[in-house]
Amino acid sequence: MFNFFIAALVVALAPGPDNLFVLAQSATHGARAGFSVICGLCTGICVQTVLLIVGVSALIAASPIAFFVLQCCGAAYLLYLAYKSFQVRAGVVKLDSPESHSGASPEGDAIESKSGEAVAGGEGAGLSFRRLYLRGIIMNLTNPKAVLFALSFIPPAVDMSRDMSPSLQMVVLGAEFVTATFIVFGSIALLAGAVKKFMLNSPKANRNLNWFSGCVFVFLAIALFLV
């Protein structure tokens, strides 16, 4: 199964919806946000593996209606995230300020602009781990291509000549894929997060990052229908 792990690393490196999603979130909100999203995406992969084992993935792929509904749900969620990104006003993020530890709502924190004007935090301020984690899960589970990928990538790697049952083999393969995904996506989050640190004091850069993130979400929403 080592060959499968190498293949999983290569697949995770290839440009796709999930790693672009991690890139956009990490560049906009920082490496910690990226890792929160990655945890959600990896949880989604675990769920996808279970759905594959019990046969739900095959049913979804075989039903044009179910597949289309999943596409619409995924696209609607991505367009919602795009809208949230485009609504953010640029500001300067102040790290380790007393307000950042005051227990205020993550969605309601303020960012102080260079002119001293308070700007709505929303997508610009640090989102909670829970929100970002849920984003990763929803992103993965509403991606119809993830269903097709699981069907085409994991079952062919099952060795019927082994003593281990096919179901257990798919569990192991799913765990390997989660590990490979975390390694690759984690590297992306760290690199994008490093770029974000250099741009913390630039309102224009922050605004551009949010617009970049929004454009990525729109692109991903359209790409869901290009199967």
- Physical arrangement of strands within the biggest beta sheet: 1-2
Shape: globular
As a percent range, the share of strand residues is under 5%
Order of helices and strands: HHHHHEEHHHH
Distance between the termini: 29 Å
Question: Outline of this structure?
Answer:
With 227 residues, this protein is an all-alpha fold.
What key attributes describe this structure?
about 230 residues, 9 helices, single chain
Task: Tell me what you see in this structure.
This protein has helices at 2-13, 17-29, 31-54, 56-62, 64-86, 129-141, 144-153, 166-198, 203-223; strands at 110-112, 118-120. Residues 90-125 have low confidence and may be disordered. Helices cover 69% and strands 3% of the residues. The protein is mainly alpha-helical and 227 residues long. Strand 1 (110-112) and strand 2 (118-120) form a beta hairpin. It is globular and about 60 Å long. It has nine helices and two strands; from the N terminus they run H-H-H-H-H-E-E-H-H-H-H. A two-stranded antiparallel sheet has the order 1-2.
Secondary structure elements and their pairing?
Elements: H1 2-13, H2 17-29, H3 31-54, H4 56-62, H5 64-86, E1 110-112, E2 118-120, H6 129-141, H7 144-153, H8 166-198, H9 203-223
Antiparallel strand pairs: 1-2
Helix pairs in contact: 1-8, 2-3, 2-8, 2-9, 3-6, 3-7, 3-8, 4-5, 4-7, 5-9
